[in-house]
From TrEMBL:
GO molecular function term, any single one: transcription cis-regulatory region binding
Sequence similarity: Belongs to the LysR transcriptional regulatory family.
Keywords: DNA-binding, Transcription, Transcription regulation
InterPro entries in the cross-refs: LysR_HTH_N, WH-like_DNA-bd_sf, WH_DNA-bd_sf
PROSITE patterns documented for this protein: HTH_LYSR
Record domain HTH lysR-type: where: 2-59
UniProt name for this protein: LysR family transcriptional regulator
Length: 290
């Protein structure tokens, strides 16, 4: 069995023509390349190189060997890639989040991902992130924190932006956008399980009242027969189950800085390579502002 690195040296030499350039291209020393070429000839029992003073070139057999080596390396790379892709499809990547928005996106888009995922329905708190990752309880935790340690790193995924849906006859509905202060004193119908957003709306909307509902169906029913405003985001609108039918409310963006939440994928550095394909797919599926 010929080692791949020997074939790689042969193919590189055929392309670069000199030992010095081959060594530079492969980031090894020139003596390492020389030894590798000799070893390849010994293992094949064939002369591949014509060695002359101050010059070494491929023989005709060596040129053919380089062509065949190129084909073998391509087959080997394809072999490895296919196995890695298959293994990724067979494995299940566990994901948790500190907020509901990313989990909604993952549930809706999961069928299009090349990797199987398992979503933790319980929200993770900030102080649980590091322990959960180090204990391999979750492979990815989506949070609003960018973490960088010796073992953990983060990757930007996207933002979630809060909107308010107002009755079209309200004076505010004529605006292009609103602030939390503009919403002071109003009563809102709100899903109870909204993670960090719950604290934000309670803190930043003065004198507001919140009618919390456990189920989206109940919230939808209330909005049908009342003029209560409710909140949505650029993420919640991707879920068909969280779209209110026959709703003529006006959807306005909230301009306060805290009405935009930036999300990162936190994961172990040693798992970066295996998680990158899934993280790419999550980023590509992240909703734009609307």
């Amino acid at each position: 069995m010929i080692d791949n690195y020997l074939l790689e040296e042969l193919v590189t030499f055929a392309s670069e023509k000199t030992l010095a350039k081959t060594a530079e291209k492969l980031s090894v020393t020139q003596p390492t390349v020389t030894r590798g070429m000799q070893k390849l000839e010994d293992e094949l029992g064939i002369q591949l190189f014509d060695r002359q003073p101050n010059r070494i070139v491929l023989t005709d057999t060596g040129k053919l060997a380089a062509e065949k080596a190129t084909e073998v390396l391509a087959v080997n790379r394809n072999f490895v890639q296919q196995l890695q892709n298959y293994a990724a499809r067979q494995s299940v990547i566990k994901i948790a989040s500190i907020a509901p928005g990313p989990l909604i996106l993952l549930r809706v888009r999961s069928a299009s991902f090349s990797t199987q995922i398992s979503i933790d329905k319980k929200f993770i708190t900030h102080d649980q992130i590091t322990t959960s990752l180090l204990n391999n309880e979750n492979s990815i935790i989506i949070s609003d924190q960018k973490i960088q340690t010796d073992q953990i790193e983060s990757r930007y995924l996207g933002t979630e932006n809060l909107y308010v849906n107002l009755d079209k006859f309200m004076y505010l509905a004529n605006s292009q956008q609103v602030s939390f202060k503009d919403l002071a004193g109003l009563s809102f119908v709100v899903l109870n399980d909204i993670g960090l957003w719950k604290e934000i709306i309670q803190k930043y909307i003065p004198n507001a009242k919140f009618l919390y509902q456990e189920e989206w169906a109940a919230l939808t029913e209330i909005t049908k027969y009342s003029s209560f405003p409710y909140f949505s985001t650029n993420i919640t609108t991707v879920n068909p189950q969280q779209r209110t039918s026959n709703d003529d409310r006006v959807r306005l963006p909230i301009t306060d800085e805290v009405a935009t939440m930036t999300f990162y994928a936190n994961y172990l550095k040693k798992q970066r390579k295996s998680l990158t394909p899934l993280l790419n797919e999550i980023s590509q599926n992240w909703p734009n502002l609307s």
